[in-house]
Structure formats: C-alpha cells, structure tokens
C-alpha cells in the first residue's frame, strides 16, 4: 500500500483578487509565494500563499474572479480548511480576528480547541494549536514567527458517499483511521503538517462550485517517480486518473473519488523558488513559457494587486 505524507495544497475559488490578498497576507499573515495565471484561463490570476519558503503542506492557492457567482459548500468538497498555529498562540489569533471584525466561533473536537471563521469571500477556515511542524519564519505586520500560521493542520471533508470516501482515504491514500466523535471520523497521515483529515460521516448533498468553495485538495507525492507509481496505483484501484500535467511548480494528476471530491496528487519538487529566489518569491508575475509573449497584454488586463500593511 502507498501512503501520502498528507496535503500538498488546497485550491479554492474566490472573488476580487485584492480582497483575497488583503485577507490571506494582510490578516492571516501568509506569504504570497507565487503570482501567476490560471493556465486554463490566462486572464485570471492563480495566487499561491504559504509559509516563508512555500513548503508543501502550507500552500493555499486561489483562482480569483472578481464578478463570479457565489458557490454553495456541500458534498464533494472540502468543507473547512484547517490551519495549524504554534502552541500558545490562540489568544493572539482571537485578538487579531476581533481587531479585523471577523466573527469566529470557538469549538472543541477530538480534544482540540478550534477558532472557526470565514474569509472575506465565504471560504470556511479554522485555526488549531499543534506542536508538530516547523514554525513559519515569515513576518508581516504583527504576525511574527512565534504566532504565525505554520501550514495546514488538515481539512474537513464533505462527501456525497462517506463510506466510499473513507475507503479512498484508507485504502488508496494510506491514511490511518484514528478516531470517531459525533458525526466525524478522523484520519491521520505520517507527515507533520497537513496530516489530520476529519470526514463528515453523514452524506451531504452536492455543493455548487463558485466563490467561497474549494475546487480540489492535493496530496503529496515525493517526486516524479513516486507520482507515476501513484498514477498506476490509483488506476489499479479502479479510479479514472488523468495524465501527468505540468503546473510549473509541481506536476499533477487528478481523480475524483466516489464521494465526488476532486483529489490531486502533486509532486513536492521543483517548488516555488526555481524561477524566483527565496527573497523575491511572489513579487513578479511569473508566466509559463507559452504565455510569455502575452506578458504586456496580461499586465494590462489583470487587476492590479499589492501586499498592504493593514495594521496602519
């Protein structure tokens, strides 16, 4: 059996790109590690936010469409994206969310305290203190490494067929079932971040893709060779899986599990610093070679965005 280390990235659909940047960089203190375009819709950004180095397991990516319709969170989607924060930093985040007038609920599950809230476009998020995982050495405004988001804690999955999704998580992705509480089943991978998945055990009617919803969840493959093994393994388990697709910062394969959630398996390398330095990641618009000739046109058509210090 193959086993993934956990989540590589999560990709969501949001609204106006500047609002997206203000929330994830300005409020949550994540680093904009890559500013590029949607390869399938080059008039739209593809923005990547993560820790200081853009490590797999920390990256949330966005397709921002300023005038797109609002989606509906439901079955076949990630219901909530969980972020891991350093032990002892929960009070800081309560104060910070309050400062920016972000409503939150404080809840408990599986013995952990969560702050649950929505981003500016309705995407459901939560923060939880965890010891595991390296600190994020990125500072923006008041968010310093001792309190900064480390990366993903995991995710809450909503399925139209939870029994089938449970089977996929265990028998295909290699996660271990470690507990049940109420209507949730908890799974764990061997990685230190992005490793806890809570699956809603009740079938949920299918959601509607749009602003404020997750498009797909991506799992980690060690490298290209490992990904090809995953491709054969997933296909042999009876799932339709795509050819390898070059996403410039990783290679990707996709399949839809039988609870209708779109899964991706993405390679850890080459990462986000191969076309920019560590120091300059996220500062320039990076384009794949096939779109380089359209750079001037894209620079004029894309909505300007900037990292802004919201603490002033």
UniProtKB/TrEMBL annotation:
GO terms for molecular function: dioxygenase activity. Gene3D superfamilies: 2,3-Dihydroxybiphenyl 1,2-Dioxygenase, domain 1 (3.10.180.10). It comes from the Bacteria. PROSITE patterns: VOC. Pfam families: Glyoxalase. Residues 6-130, 151-268 form the VOC domain. The keyword Oxidoreductase applies. InterPro entries: Extradiol_RC_dioxygenase, Glyas_Bleomycin-R_OHBP_Dase, Glyas_Fos-R_dOase_dom, VOC_core. Keywords: Dioxygenase, Oxidoreductase. The keyword Oxidoreductase applies. This is Ring-cleaving dioxygenase.
């Amino acid at each position: 059996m193959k086993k993934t280390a956990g989540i590589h990235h999560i990709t969501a659909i949001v609204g106006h790109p500047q609002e997206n940047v203000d929330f994830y960089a300005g409020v949550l203190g994540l680093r904009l590690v890559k500013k590029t375009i949607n390869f399938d819709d080059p008039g739209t950004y593809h923005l990547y936010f993560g820790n200081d180095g853009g490590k797999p397991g920390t990256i949330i990516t966005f397709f921002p469409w300023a005038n797109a319709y609002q989606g509906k969170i439901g079955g076949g989607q990630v219901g909530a994206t969980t972020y891991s924060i350093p032990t002892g930093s929960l009070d800081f985040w309560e104060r910070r969310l309050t400062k920016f007038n972000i409503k939150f609920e404080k809840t408990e599950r599986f013995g952990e305290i969560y702050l649950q809230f929505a981003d500016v476009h309705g995407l459901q998020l939560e923060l939880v203190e965890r010891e595991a995982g390296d600190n994020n050495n990125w500072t923006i405004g008041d968010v310093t490494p001792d309190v900064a988001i480390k990366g993903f804690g995991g995710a809450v999955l909503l399925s139209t067929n939870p029994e089938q999704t449970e089977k996929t998580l265990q028998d295909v992705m290699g996660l271990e079932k470690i507990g049940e509480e109420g209507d949730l089943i908890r799974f764990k991978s061997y990685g230190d971040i992005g490793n806890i998945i809570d699956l809603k055990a009740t079938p949920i009617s299918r959601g509607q893709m749009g602003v404020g919803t997750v498009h797909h969840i991506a799992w980690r493959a060690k490298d290209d060779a490992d990904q090809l093994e995953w491709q054969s393994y997933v296909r042999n388990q009876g799932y339709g899986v795509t050819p390898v697709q070059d996403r410039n910062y990783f290679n990707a394969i996709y399949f839809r599990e039988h609870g209708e959630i779109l899964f991706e398996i993405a390679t850890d390398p080459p990462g986000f610093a191969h076309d920019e330095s560590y120091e300059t990641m996220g500062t320039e618009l990076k384009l794949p070679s096939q779109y380089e000739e359209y750079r001037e046109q894209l620079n004029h058509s894309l909505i300007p965005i900037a990292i802004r210090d919201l603490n002033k």
